[in-house]
Please model this.
Amino acid sequence: PLYNAVIHATLSRVRPVMLASFTTIVGMVPLINDPMYASLAVVVIGGLFVGTVVTLMLLPLFYSILFRIKKPSE
Model:
């Protein structure tokens, strides 16, 4: 069923997306103290955080709404 496919696809992408975002965010943290690159680090960290939330939460929701996928009644 489509509902199970959306759930399975979302759950299978959580770990790779979180690890990729987390490693880059942690790599940017030391740049926050640098006067030249602090603004760049803040923007990259914020963008990765927002992109992760969109990828893991909003995108599956939009697909479900767009294709009218509903939870099957038990």
